[in-house]
What does this fold into?
Amino acid sequence: MSVYHIPVLAKETIESLNIRPDGIYIDATAGAGGHSELIAQRLTTGRLISLDKDPDAIAEATKRLSGYECSTIIQTDFSEIREAALTAGVTRVDGVLMDIGVSSHQLDDAQRGFSYQHDAPLDMRMSRQGVSAKNLVNELSSCELTRLIGVYGEERYAGSIAREIVKYRERQPIETTLQLAEIVKSAMPMKAKREKGHPAKRTFQALRIAVNDELGCLEKGMKAAFDLLKAGGRLSVITFHSLEDRMVKQQFAKWCEGCTCPPEFPVCVCGKKPRGRLVNKKPIIASDEELLENKRSHSAKLRTIEKLEED
It folds into this structure.
């Protein structure tokens, strides 16, 4: 198995998709192709379309899936899943997988600027294009930084951190990951520094989400993926923090909602029918065995919805 990125919840994810050998499937966040390969191994006359916006991931997945005739690989963001499917000549699919979040490779490659553990240029762009984390910390106002860190990082000391960032950059630009990590640490009260985990973890999470528009892409991608599904097709989403999981849970609930008429109405007049059903009412989490093998699976949650009827 590639050390580039170990696919989390591998067995559970493949089972959740209920793969048919002749089906059409999209791995919308392929990474190094770990989940994609497990899907490809179960196909005979079916097709697999693997997407990722990271050029490093595309190169790794291309090597890994080179022996599978069913495989098509496209470099794009998963929010563009509808356009990618049409490019591949596909209008309906039997299943879609989305593994949301940063890959092990992106975290471990210091030069990508995702980690507060290594000194590197402050970047965090999964696509290597567009606005970087360096741009945000050096250009946003204190109020904008407070909101960003507070909402996306769920950081209770967001205001103090934002003020310290602005104060520091008045003297010199913030250019590296360790610079930022030390600034965040200096803004935290002593009791927070003693808590489990690195003091800068939530701030780095917030910047990464903002740089890559992760929540916007998740909302757009989920809706487009569900629209692509055939009747009986499944959408499986793996998330790694509460903001993402909450979005997935709420969107799935909307698709499963039926009649909204007041209970006193003798018959339904709204005509609303559920579009999907939950495959599991509660999210699937990593087993004890997987937690021992891959510590990054500890926060992973898998939710799956099945489409009831085609639109």
In short: The mean pLDDT is 92. The chain has two domains: 10-105+214-307, 128-211. The longest strand covers residues 229-239.
